[in-house]
Amino acid sequence: ALYIVGHTVLWGFAERYALSVMPATSGMSVTDIGLWTLYAFVVGRFVGTGLMYRFRPENLLIVFSAASVVLTAAAALARGWPGIWCVVGASFFMSILFPTIFGLAVKNGGKSMKSASALLIMAGGSATASLAIMNVICGSAASPYVVLLPSLCFLLVTAFAVMHRKIPTEVSAQIAVIST
């Protein structure tokens, strides 16, 4: 659920973030920034998938989620184009997080694989309510600090990835429901 919260809040507030760090940005430019986050996500998915042929998924999850933490935290502190490029870069790195968490969670699941898969998807679906909650909290205010919530979520995903390398698969599957 944490990854979905981070992803949903980051993309849900991307346009407001852009307007808060660059108030003179036009509506078309803000839409372009949203498109760049999507392009970065797609490119990141292909690059990340290609890297999985060479590196262990757990290690890529650590690197990609840690990069997302750094970039979203930097976006909260940066202004102007550097902050916007941090959001775009975070989109690149968060591209493989969900499928990797999902794959690691159901790996060696045995008889409980179907239930674990269903729980992961339902947890992710319920986490999308975070955007509505954030809209109530923030209202129409545009604050660059809203990206700190995704940063925290990605930090916890990084912790999951590190723990996954050290704990048995059965326990990891239970923790993954929280991390997605």
Structural class: mainly alpha
Task: Write the H/E string, N to C.
Answer: HHHHHHHHHH
Biggest sheet descriptor: none
* N- and C-termini, Cα separation: 4 Å
Count of individual helical segments: 10
Q: List the uncertain runs.
A: none
Q: Taking Cα atoms only, what radius of gyration do you get, to the nearest Å?
A: 16 Å
Strand content: under 5%
Helix fraction, binned, reads over 70%
Q: How many β-strand runs? A: 0
What is the general shape?
globular
Mean pLDDT, all residues: 81
Characterization of this structure:
With 180 residues, the protein is an all-alpha fold. It has 10 helices and no strands. α4 (57-77) runs antiparallel to α5 and α9 (148-164) packs antiparallel against α10 (169-179). The radius of gyration is 16 Å and the shape is globular.
Q: Which descriptors would you attach to this protein?
A:
mainly alpha
